[in-house]
Protein backbone atom coordinates (compact mmCIF):
# COMPACT_ATOMS: atom_id res chain seq x y z
CA UNK A 1 0.00 0.00 0.00
CA UNK A 2 1.37 3.41 -0.96
CA UNK A 3 2.15 5.74 1.92
CA UNK A 4 0.97 9.31 2.30
CA UNK A 5 4.29 10.62 0.95
CA UNK A 6 4.59 8.24 -1.99
CA UNK A 7 6.28 10.05 -4.87
CA UNK A 8 7.48 12.87 -2.63
CA UNK A 9 11.11 13.86 -2.14
CA UNK A 10 12.24 14.85 1.36
CA UNK A 11 15.56 16.42 2.27
CA UNK A 12 16.36 15.68 5.91
CA UNK A 13 19.41 17.62 7.03
CA UNK A 14 21.10 15.82 9.89
CA UNK A 15 19.01 12.82 8.90
CA UNK A 16 21.14 10.17 10.61
CA UNK A 17 21.32 11.57 14.16
CA UNK A 18 19.15 10.79 17.16
CA UNK A 19 16.06 12.62 15.92
CA UNK A 20 17.00 12.82 12.25
CA UNK A 21 17.19 9.06 11.90
CA UNK A 22 13.66 8.65 13.28
CA UNK A 23 12.41 11.33 10.88
CA UNK A 24 14.13 9.71 7.90
CA UNK A 25 12.75 6.26 8.73
CA UNK A 26 9.25 7.66 9.22
CA UNK A 27 9.25 9.32 5.80
CA UNK A 28 10.59 6.13 4.21
CA UNK A 29 7.81 4.10 5.79
CA UNK A 30 5.34 6.50 4.20
CA UNK A 31 6.79 6.08 0.72
CA UNK A 32 9.04 9.14 0.34
CA UNK A 33 12.44 9.28 -1.30
CA UNK A 34 14.68 10.58 1.47
CA UNK A 35 17.89 12.51 0.95
CA UNK A 36 19.91 12.89 4.13
CA UNK A 37 22.94 14.92 5.03
CA UNK A 38 25.32 13.48 7.58
CA UNK A 39 28.77 13.80 9.12
CA UNK A 40 29.48 10.25 10.28
CA UNK A 41 29.61 7.44 7.73
CA UNK A 42 28.76 4.87 10.40
CA UNK A 43 25.49 6.69 11.14
CA UNK A 44 24.52 6.66 7.48
CA UNK A 45 25.27 2.95 7.22
CA UNK A 46 23.15 2.34 10.32
CA UNK A 47 20.26 4.27 8.74
CA UNK A 48 20.52 2.23 5.55
CA UNK A 49 20.49 -0.97 7.56
CA UNK A 50 17.51 0.12 9.67
CA UNK A 51 15.53 1.13 6.59
CA UNK A 52 15.37 -2.49 5.42
CA UNK A 53 13.41 -2.91 2.21
CA UNK A 54 13.19 0.88 1.90
CA UNK A 55 16.98 1.30 1.71
CA UNK A 56 16.96 1.94 -2.09
CA UNK A 57 14.92 5.08 -1.36
CA UNK A 58 17.65 6.60 0.83
CA UNK A 59 20.30 8.90 -0.60
CA UNK A 60 23.20 10.15 1.51
CA UNK A 61 25.36 13.26 1.24
CA UNK A 62 28.27 13.83 3.60
CA UNK A 63 28.39 17.61 3.64
CA UNK A 64 28.67 20.54 6.01
CA UNK A 65 25.32 22.32 5.86
CA UNK A 66 26.92 25.52 7.15
CA UNK A 67 28.86 25.68 3.86
CA UNK A 68 26.93 27.84 1.41
CA UNK A 69 28.45 26.36 -1.75
CA UNK A 70 27.96 22.76 -0.60
CA UNK A 71 24.32 23.36 0.28
CA UNK A 72 23.59 25.06 -3.02
CA UNK A 73 25.17 22.22 -4.96
CA UNK A 74 23.26 19.62 -2.95
CA UNK A 75 19.87 21.21 -3.57
CA UNK A 76 20.68 21.63 -7.26
CA UNK A 77 21.62 17.96 -7.52
CA UNK A 78 18.48 16.86 -5.71
CA UNK A 79 16.22 18.77 -8.03
CA UNK A 80 18.08 17.64 -11.15
CA UNK A 81 17.96 13.95 -10.15
CA UNK A 82 14.43 13.81 -8.80
CA UNK A 83 12.59 16.62 -10.59
CA UNK A 84 11.12 18.02 -7.39
CA UNK A 85 11.91 18.80 -3.77
CA UNK A 86 8.78 18.65 -1.68
CA UNK A 87 9.99 18.68 1.91
CA UNK A 88 12.85 20.12 3.94
CA UNK A 89 13.34 19.10 7.55
CA UNK A 90 16.32 20.63 9.30
CA UNK A 91 17.46 18.46 12.21
CA UNK A 92 20.95 19.97 12.36
CA UNK A 93 21.88 21.58 15.65
CA UNK A 94 24.25 21.63 18.58
CA UNK A 95 24.29 22.41 22.27
CA UNK A 96 26.79 24.17 24.48
CA UNK A 97 25.91 25.27 27.99
CA UNK A 98 26.89 25.45 31.61
CA UNK A 99 28.89 28.65 31.14
CA UNK A 100 27.95 32.19 32.12
CA UNK A 101 27.90 34.75 29.33
CA UNK A 102 31.03 36.57 30.47
CA UNK A 103 32.91 33.27 30.56
CA UNK A 104 31.72 32.15 27.14
CA UNK A 105 34.43 32.03 24.49
CA UNK A 106 33.73 33.48 21.06
CA UNK A 107 34.50 30.20 19.28
CA UNK A 108 31.65 28.44 21.08
CA UNK A 109 29.33 31.37 20.40
CA UNK A 110 30.13 31.21 16.69
CA UNK A 111 29.62 27.44 16.63
CA UNK A 112 26.15 27.78 18.10
CA UNK A 113 25.20 30.40 15.55
CA UNK A 114 26.53 28.24 12.72
CA UNK A 115 24.85 25.00 13.74
CA UNK A 116 21.56 26.37 15.01
CA UNK A 117 21.00 29.42 12.81
CA UNK A 118 23.20 29.43 9.72
CA UNK A 119 22.25 25.86 8.80
CA UNK A 120 18.55 26.73 8.58
CA UNK A 121 19.31 29.95 6.73
CA UNK A 122 21.40 28.27 4.02
CA UNK A 123 19.08 25.29 3.60
CA UNK A 124 15.95 27.44 3.36
CA UNK A 125 17.64 29.96 1.08
CA UNK A 126 18.55 27.17 -1.34
CA UNK A 127 15.27 25.25 -1.17
CA UNK A 128 12.64 28.00 -1.21
CA UNK A 129 13.21 29.14 -4.84
CA UNK A 130 12.68 25.53 -5.98
CA UNK A 131 9.50 25.23 -3.95
CA UNK A 132 8.20 28.57 -5.18
CA UNK A 133 8.57 27.37 -8.78
CA UNK A 134 6.67 24.21 -7.87
CA UNK A 135 4.06 26.27 -5.99
CA UNK A 136 4.22 23.74 -3.19
CA UNK A 137 6.50 22.52 -0.43
CA UNK A 138 6.85 22.18 3.31
CA UNK A 139 9.69 23.27 5.55
CA UNK A 140 10.05 22.23 9.19
CA UNK A 141 12.92 23.53 11.28
CA UNK A 142 13.75 21.68 14.48
CA UNK A 143 14.52 24.46 16.93
CA UNK A 144 14.20 24.05 20.73
CA UNK A 145 12.26 25.06 23.80
CA UNK A 146 15.27 27.27 24.56
CA UNK A 147 14.08 29.61 21.82
CA UNK A 148 11.42 30.88 24.24
CA UNK A 149 12.77 29.66 27.60
CA UNK A 150 16.14 31.29 28.17
CA UNK A 151 17.80 29.58 31.09
CA UNK A 152 21.02 30.48 32.87
CA UNK A 153 24.28 29.21 31.46
CA UNK A 154 23.02 28.83 27.90
CA UNK A 155 23.33 32.29 26.38
CA UNK A 156 24.79 31.25 23.04
CA UNK A 157 22.46 28.29 22.64
CA UNK A 158 19.34 30.24 23.59
CA UNK A 159 20.31 33.20 21.40
CA UNK A 160 20.89 30.99 18.37
CA UNK A 161 17.61 29.14 18.84
CA UNK A 162 15.62 32.32 19.43
CA UNK A 163 17.10 33.82 16.27
CA UNK A 164 16.27 30.66 14.32
CA UNK A 165 12.66 30.83 15.45
CA UNK A 166 12.40 34.49 14.45
CA UNK A 167 13.95 33.70 11.08
CA UNK A 168 11.44 30.92 10.38
CA UNK A 169 8.55 33.15 11.45
CA UNK A 170 9.71 35.80 9.02
CA UNK A 171 10.20 33.26 6.25
CA UNK A 172 6.66 32.01 6.82
CA UNK A 173 5.42 35.57 6.29
CA UNK A 174 7.56 35.88 3.14
CA UNK A 175 6.01 32.83 1.47
CA UNK A 176 2.43 33.22 2.68
CA UNK A 177 -0.02 32.38 -0.08
CA UNK A 178 2.53 30.72 -2.36
CA UNK A 179 1.76 27.09 -1.55
CA UNK A 180 4.94 26.79 0.49
CA UNK A 181 4.44 26.22 4.22
CA UNK A 182 6.97 26.89 6.97
CA UNK A 183 6.70 25.65 10.54
CA UNK A 184 8.98 24.99 13.51
CA UNK A 185 8.96 22.52 16.34
CA UNK A 186 10.30 23.19 19.81
CA UNK A 187 11.61 20.07 21.58
CA UNK A 188 13.05 20.11 25.06
CA UNK A 189 15.23 17.11 25.94
CA UNK A 190 14.76 14.27 23.46
CA UNK A 191 15.29 10.67 24.55
CA UNK A 192 18.43 9.92 22.54
CA UNK A 193 21.54 7.93 23.39
CA UNK A 194 23.61 11.12 23.49
CA UNK A 195 21.28 12.79 25.99
CA UNK A 196 21.05 9.67 28.17
CA UNK A 197 24.83 9.49 28.34
CA UNK A 198 25.04 13.20 29.19
CA UNK A 199 22.43 12.96 31.96
CA UNK A 200 22.55 9.38 33.31
CA UNK A 201 20.60 10.25 36.46
CA UNK A 202 17.60 11.76 34.68
CA UNK A 203 14.14 10.25 34.42
CA UNK A 204 14.19 9.16 30.78
CA UNK A 205 10.53 8.16 30.86
CA UNK A 206 9.52 11.82 30.76
CA UNK A 207 11.53 12.62 27.67
CA UNK A 208 9.79 12.59 24.27
CA UNK A 209 10.95 9.76 22.03
CA UNK A 210 12.41 10.60 18.60
CA UNK A 211 9.68 8.53 16.96
CA UNK A 212 6.97 10.57 18.70
CA UNK A 213 8.46 13.83 17.49
CA UNK A 214 8.93 12.39 14.00
CA UNK A 215 5.18 11.79 13.80
CA UNK A 216 4.54 15.46 14.56
CA UNK A 217 6.97 16.46 11.81
CA UNK A 218 5.30 14.13 9.31
CA UNK A 219 1.93 15.64 10.18
CA UNK A 220 3.24 19.17 9.59
CA UNK A 221 4.53 18.10 6.17
CA UNK A 222 1.33 16.32 5.20
CA UNK A 223 -1.77 17.51 3.37
CA UNK A 224 -3.66 17.12 6.65
CA UNK A 225 -1.70 20.14 7.94
CA UNK A 226 -2.29 22.36 4.92
CA UNK A 227 -3.87 25.02 7.18
CA UNK A 228 -0.86 25.04 9.54
CA UNK A 229 1.64 27.73 8.57
CA UNK A 230 3.97 29.87 10.64
CA UNK A 231 3.49 27.72 13.74
CA UNK A 232 6.00 26.90 16.48
CA UNK A 233 4.79 23.59 17.89
CA UNK A 234 5.94 22.60 21.40
CA UNK A 235 6.92 18.93 21.71
CA UNK A 236 8.08 18.92 25.31
CA UNK A 237 6.45 15.76 26.61
CA UNK A 238 6.66 15.91 30.42
CA UNK A 239 10.20 17.26 30.52
Give an overview in words:
The protein is an alpha/beta fold. The chain has one domain (9-235): Rossmann fold (3-Layer(aba) Sandwich), CATH 3.40.50. It contains 7 helices and 7 strands. The protein has helices at 18-29, 41-50, 68-82, 106-134, 155-174, 193-198, 210-221, and strands spanning 9-13, 33-38, 58-62, 87-90, 137-142, 180-187, 232-235. A 7-stranded parallel β-sheet has the order 3-2-1-4-5-6-7, sandwiched between helices. Strand 4, helix 4 and strand 5 (137-142) form a beta-alpha-beta unit. Helix 3 packs parallel to helix 4 and helix 4 (106-134) packs parallel to helix 5. It is globular, with a radius of gyration of 17 Å. The N and C termini lie far apart (37 Å). The model has no long low-confidence stretch (mean pLDDT 94).
On the 0-100 scale, what is the average pLDDT?
A: 94
Using the coordinates above, name the CATH class.
Alpha Beta
Give the helix level as a range of percent: 40-55%
| Widest beta sheet: strand line-up | 3-2-1-4-5-6-7
CATH-defined superfamily: NAD(P)-binding Rossmann-like Domain
The total beta strand count reads 7
Second rung of CATH, namely the architecture:
3-Layer(aba) Sandwich
Overall 3D geometry? globular
Oligomeric form: single chain
Measure the end-to-end span: 37 Å
Give the count of structural domains: 1
- Taking Cα atoms only, what radius of gyration do you get, to the nearest Å? 17 Å
Q: What fraction strand? A: 15-25%
Stretches where pLDDT falls below 50 for ≥5 residues? none
How are helices and strands ordered from N to C? EHEHEHEHEHEHHE
Amino acid sequence: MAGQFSGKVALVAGGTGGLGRAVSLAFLEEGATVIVTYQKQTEFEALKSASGQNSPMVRGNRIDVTDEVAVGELVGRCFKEHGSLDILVNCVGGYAGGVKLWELDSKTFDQMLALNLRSGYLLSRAVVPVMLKQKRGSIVDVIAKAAIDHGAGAAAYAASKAAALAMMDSLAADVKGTGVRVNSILPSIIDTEVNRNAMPGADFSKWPKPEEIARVILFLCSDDARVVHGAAVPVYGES
